[in-house]
Each structure stands twice: as C-alpha cells, then as structure tokens.
C-alpha cells in the first residue's frame, strides 16, 4: 500500500485548517479532506497525485527544449501562488515553448506553508507533443515525485495509434483498481498538456470542451464549461483579457471503485481563468479556484512572462 492509499483509509477529522495541521503533526495522520485538496490542486496545477510524507529533493527538471518544427518560438514563464483560507498552500511554476505545430513544457509544483507541516511534496513534470485544434496532443511525458519512503517515476510515450506506453518505477499495482482499456487511453493527454488550450483568444469555445487526461495510472476527464468573459486585474502577474470556465474532474479508470463513486457523487467545483499567451495561439490558467470542505483554494499568477526566440535559443531553464 502506498502512503497515499493509506491516507484514504483514515477517517476525516472535522476541524479548522490550522487545527487539522496541528493534529496531523501530533498523530502523523493526514486529514482526508486536506489530501483531497492537494490532489485537486496538484492535478489542476499540472500534477497527478499527492504523496502523504516529507519529500526528498526531486531531480532537476529537464530543460524545456525548442519544439521540433522550424520557425519562431514563443516562450512562456508563469508562476502561481496558492492559498487556502488565507494561508500559504503551495506554488506552481511552469515554463513552455510553443512552435507552429508542436510544443514542450515543464513544471515544478511544491507544497508550502501549512501543507509543508503535514506532507511536504514536490513534483517535477515534463511534456512535449503536437498541436491540434482541440488538444495539445502528448507524444512524451515524464513525472517524478519522492518522499522518505516513496519514490515514483513515470515515463510515457504515445505511439502512432494514439496509445500510451508507460514505464513506471516502481511498477504500479493496479489489481484493485478499475482497469484502463485501450478505448479509455486512445488519444488521451498528460496532466501538463491538459492545461494548455490551443485557442488564440479567450472565448466561450475555449471552455466548452472535455479533455481526456491520463497520468500513467489514472484516467479522468477534465470537463469544462463556459461561465463568463472575466478580465483579470492583479497588482502583479497577469492583468488582461481572460475567460472564466467552470470545471470538474470526472474519474474514468485507474481508481479504486469506492474513490470513483465518491468523486462522481461529490466533485469539487473548479473555476479556471484562461489567459492568452500572445503569439502562441494558446491559453493557460492565470487563476484557479477549487471549492473544498474547508474553504476555497485560490492560485493566482504572480509572474506571467511571454517572450520570442529563434529555435536555437528557445530552451528555458526550470525554476
């Protein structure tokens, strides 16, 4: 049993956020609803799962290389800070390089503040692929996460038939989980690619889509719908046009049946503000809100930098 699965077998104390953290430090148990919040935050912020133990240092995230097609490259460097109930929760850093027909991206996601007191976690992710009118289609995906007693690597490559080949170290034990079939997995995308929408300008059409996501173990739909045109005005980070989308995570396979029933019965509402990456014909999250049992998790962009480069100079160092 992994540390994450152990947490799902524990009861959920009904107390305030700070009290939860104190109890967790004292008992060594992680409240279920805090784990659920982190899982939603990590998934939306471009990770797949949360690990309930202090994390070891993750290896340096690989460079974001220039897309393989020739032509001008648009680079993106974005950083989001997340708070829950006014308390520091974590951060998301993402760098991406966009070409006319392809893209590459990497991301580092960290817990900070109160969550570090309970289960310090770091994720390193990298993705590359091609563009279509509906999706950024993954060709390669890599993820790494670690804790004192758990380390996990995932390498995933999509073949010409649109099916992923997964190498997980250590190998996943999926015997108690709903099996992901070829029908579920065909033309799915990784969690990092899922948050990049290949639309040039904020619009209702940018929201109205269902994105099939696969992280190498879990397969879920990220179901979005249009809410409103909602420009963002922030003192730092991103200010400008944006479209506000409502969303939920709908489990498809790779979960335990009980978890799937709970997620379908009580999905946590998610709101995403998508902002344009000028010159890339793409939208990315500039603000994220997740409604949780203990308050609203809010992630805001504190850095949103777009630049141009020739292909030979398009690599970005990870943050």
Notes on the structure:
By secondary structure, the protein is α+β, with helices and mostly antiparallel strands. The protein has one domain (3-309). It is 18% helix and 41% strand. The protein contains eight helices and 13 strands. The protein has helices spanning 3-8, 17-27, 32-44, 114-119, 182-185, 191-194, 204-207, 257-265, and strands at 73-84, 87-98, 102-111, 122-131, 136-146, 151-158, 164-169, 209-214, 219-229, 243-253, 270-277, 282-292, 295-309. The protein has a 13-stranded antiparallel beta sheet with strand order 7-6-5-4-3-2-1-13-12-11-10-9-8, sandwiched between helices. β8 and β9 (219-229) form a beta hairpin. The longest helix has 13 residues, at 32-44. The protein starts with a helix and ends in a 10-residue tail after the last strand. 44% of the residues are buried. The model is unreliable at 1-37, 45-63 and 313-319 (pLDDT under 50).
């Amino acid at each position: 049993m992994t540390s994450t699965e152990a947490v799902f077998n524990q009861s959920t104390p009904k107390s305030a956020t700070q009290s939860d953290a104190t109890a967790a430090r004292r008992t060594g148990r992680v409240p279920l609803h805090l784990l659920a919040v982190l899982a939603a935050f990590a998934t939306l912020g471009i990770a797949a799962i949360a690990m309930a133990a202090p994390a070891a240092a993750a290896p340096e995230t690989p460079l974001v290389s220039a897309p393989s097609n020739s032509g001008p490259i648009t680079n993106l460097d974005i950083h989001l800070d997340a708070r829950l109930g006014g308390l520091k929760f974590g951060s998301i850093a993402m760098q991406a390089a966009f070409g006319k027909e392809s893209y590459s991206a990497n991301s580092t996601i960290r817990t900070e503040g109160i969550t570090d007191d309970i289960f310090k976690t770091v994720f390193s992710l990298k993705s590359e692929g091609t563009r279509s009118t509906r999706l950024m289609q993954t060709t390669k995906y890599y993820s790494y996460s670690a804790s004192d007693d758990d380390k996990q690597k995932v390498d995933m490559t999509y073949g010409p038939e649109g099916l992923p080949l997964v190498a997980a170290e250590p190998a996943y034990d999926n015997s108690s989980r709903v099996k992901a079939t070829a029908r579920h997995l065909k033309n799915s995308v990784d969690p990092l690619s899922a948050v990049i929408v290949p639309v040039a300008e904020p619009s209702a059409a940018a929201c109205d889509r269902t994105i099939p996501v696969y992280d190498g173990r879990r397969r879920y739909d990220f179901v979005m719908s249009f809410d409103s045109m909602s420009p963002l005005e922030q003192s730092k980070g991103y200010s400008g046009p944006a479209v506000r989308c409502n969303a939920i995570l709908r489990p498809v396979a790779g979960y335990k049946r009980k978890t799937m029933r709970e997620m379908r019965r009580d999905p946590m509402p998610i709101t995403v503000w998508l902002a344009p990456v000028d010159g890339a014909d793409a939208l990315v999250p500039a603000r994220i809100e997740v409604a949780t049992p203990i308050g609203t998790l809010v992630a805001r962009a504190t850095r949103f930098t777009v630049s141009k480069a020739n292909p030979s100079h398009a690599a970005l160092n990870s943050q």
